[in-house]
Amino acid sequence: MALGCAPDLASQRPADESRLEVYSTLLQWMRAHGGDLDENVYISHDSQRGTHIRVKREGVPSNAHIIKTPIATTLSYFNAIDHRSGETNFPAHGINLPREFIDSVGPEEASIFFLVGQFLRGSESFWYPYLQSLPQPGSLTTLPYYEEDEDLEWLEGTSLIQARTQKIAQLRDKYETSSSELSKSKFRDAGKYSWDLYVWASTIFVSRAFSAKVLSGVVPDLGVPEENISVLLPFIDILNHRPLAKVEWRAGTESVDFVVLEEVGADQEIANNYGPRNNEQLMMNYGFCLSDNPCDYRTVGLRAPPGSPLQIARERQQELFPDSNKDTEGPYYVFNIFYPLLAPDIPMEHSIFSPALFNAVSILAANQRELETLEISGHEIRIPNAYGNSRAIVAALSQIIIELITHIVRLRSSRPRAKQPGNLKQIHAETYRNSQVRLSESALVIAAWTLQRAQLHGLKGGWDETKRLLAEHMACLPKGKFSEAVESRIQVRILERPSVLAKTGELFAPHDLLHLLPVEVQKHFQECLSAVLKTTSRNMSALRGITQRAYPFQFPLFACFVVAVHIKYSHNPPGEGENFLPARLSRWASLILDHYQTPTDDVAWALEDEDDEALLSEFDEVVETMREHNATVFSNLEAFTGGWQGDAWWLSGNWVRWAWMVTEQEGVQTPEDPLALLSSNKSENITLSTAAYLYIPQE
What InterPro entries does the entry give (predicted)? Predict the structure, then answer.
């Protein structure tokens, strides 16, 4: 990248080994204007941390004022306008931008152009010692500086590739608008304010500037919105970022002080805290990221399809609560398992998947019965916890697992093959990619745990049982896949917080259903089901060679039988033939009978899907033939289902179609063995298979 018109700065650009000399000069300049550095710290430099501050043997106590940056050395919009506030002045120091330009473009752009102007002055600038310490144009590693194909290749597949495009477009639009205004103002050196220098100065402000609060001791009334003014604090901005570091910037009348609010031991680095930034924000704003960033999270792009229940619910929310200040598109986050800024009482799943994300996916995965219970308030839209609504939870988890797996595979497959990072930008991009993979992988372990609980039956729910199951779950992870700290944190997340899934064992594979029935009917129902399966598979071309697990009529036949038994016994007079169905099945039968219109005898139903209807029609013919020639297959169940003559038969075409539609609505497709992906480092040819389960809620 070109260095603009500052050959003196470029020619004196220090190599890494002379960085300490540059900062020593900066410290002398700062002290000459009333600043200082705590005597118990010193300036250090290494290839890992760059230039930074370390503690001497004595250590520093809490509340120590490590750095005092004089007000006179700060650089901001107030210098651009040559502001005077009582006894404190903010001189422009030789760069007098036209007032009409400043008023036209606003504080942010005026500050950027002012910094460019000071850079162009070179050694004549008042801030020359500070400008020497800054990364020079072309040496920054933020996204706009990923220009070479070899660098961009390391961003492919990540969210950063689109973020970079958007960032450059935003910068270009602002630059062209502001540059045009500067030219219109007849400013003499307008042509020297190049695009390259604008990107550099903009990046310096984004990556190093502080809030205008740091000047509140001398400029109590800013006169413009605080968020529009950023302040550069020479020497304080030397400090590296450490998430959760306890620090404070104190505004004074003569200086801005950097204060540590915790003891820092000998030979430890003094770090700043840029706030709870995730790795994408760090890459966007600062040009680096952290492999073990506890504040990391991933933003998930989720848009409500037009006409979807989620979009309709959002529109209704805006109608009901027009004054509520909310982002109707999120935020949708997947959190790092170490993420510290969580409410203490939120469920385990919401500590990984933000409530807004979980609720949105639940609504998109909900069936019509569940959507009828939808709750809309000013701050959220959700399907409430109620009997029969946990199906939406496991359906949402299944969709989230698929998204996590897709995200992992995309990042793995898009990594440059057989290459190692060749420069600092590529190293940061690789660190970002790996941190995103680990974030999704650990989230996958959490989601798979909840989904597994939905598929396990006969659990008693004790603490010892939970720990045993968790140990078995963690044993499925490849050895060494996660560090001990990560594995421990995953288990803590699972054990310390209640699950949104209050009940276990609500998803049933076909072979699990038989055990829900009373013992006295299990044999007869199994014989009937086996005979139907064998006969239809032999006589229906679409079912030939199909496995029992994949046989599409098992759920509908089970639903038909349970409902027939429930109806028969509910019509009996009190005391005559009490319903022998378990309470769980009886309540489930009532649920689906109440919410799905049952067929009548005088109208023949047909499914909307032509392929399904063709399959059901062929099934009807085969079963009717069985009914005529092998009646004993069904007569053994007559004592439980009642008479089966005529159109009221429990396996009539209408009832089978009704059960087909019901079990489609009340079923869940879940990923099979979601943790298998963790055992492989393959980035392609990965097939994600799913299995069908029938949802029958616990009481």
Answer: SET_dom_sf, SETD3_SETD6_MTase
